[in-house]
Amino acid sequence: MEIRITVLGAGSWGTTVASLAAQNTATTLWARRPDAAEEIRDDHVNSRYLPDYRLPETLHATADLEEAVSTADVLVMGVPSSGFREAVADARPFLRPWVPVISLTKGIEQGSRLRMTEVISEELPGHPVGVLTGPNLAKEILAGHAAASVIALTDLSIATALQDCFTTEVFRVYTNHDLVGCELGGALKNVIAIASGMADGLGAGDNTRAAVITRGLSELTRLGSALGGEPITFSGLAGMGDLMATCISKQSRNRHVGEELGKGKTIEKIIEEMNQVAEGVKSCRAIQELGREHDVEMPITDEVVRVCYEGASAEEAYRGLLKRNLEHEMHGIH
Predict the structure, then answer these.
(1) For the chain, what are the domain ranges?
(2) Which residues does the annotation mark as catalytic?
(3) Per DSSP, what are the bridge partners of residue 5?
(4) 146: buried, middle or exposed (CB in 10 Å: 19+, 13-18, 0-12)?
């Protein structure tokens, strides 16, 4: 029996995941704006986020939430963290019992400091929850370049059943049981990517970028392990893979924010000029709070918070990192 998939959120990544699924099974993409849904459904393009890429003709789109959700066998959430809980709650009246809910969102909810799957579990108790995550840049995937991702649920039988829904000839999907680690890797790497971008904006070289990425990997491994993730997860696609892509790609929103900060722009001006969400800006304070709560050192996160919210410059942030005491390279990782 064909699995019917609904993706909520017609941003660049939600649209891309829906396009992948539409190659394998009946897929509906929900867009908040009726004109966007009509364009995707009739013209097979998303001109706001992906103007240069043709979408599958088999991909259905609608702005009617009940229509989108009521027939779903799998619900995929592609909504930014700031509006995630509201979107899940809005979908609740139309969602059939026990339907798996998969998050694409790489962020932490402000205030509660919950992961997105924890938000889903609060709003939709009884539904299996998971994440689809990895080094996945939307435009490269739609252009047909090879990529890999991870679908993580604590119930591997469900992950395996969903694996084929998103796998294509050039997009490989692996399974993982470490939901916590995979989800945290995606959220934490965005903060490190801002720091990597700041180095680019300051004119630093590849040595600096490599140091930021590897020390950032140590930072997210320390916190991810403290919160229940498995250390080995952070060396895989959801950890190191996603971190590398987000820190070095010109397509990365979070790296772009950091680069502009390094050039001296204010965070307010940068956000004003963007038409998409950079989750690292929204999540960095919540991640800092989690580090302090669990007594985990987060020096890169601390400096990103200083630049984004406390008026420090990117140059001051890097000077702060260089003044830290020297210690064992794997300090705090068990």
Answers:
(1) 5-177, 184-322
(2) 189
(3) 27, 74
(4) exposed
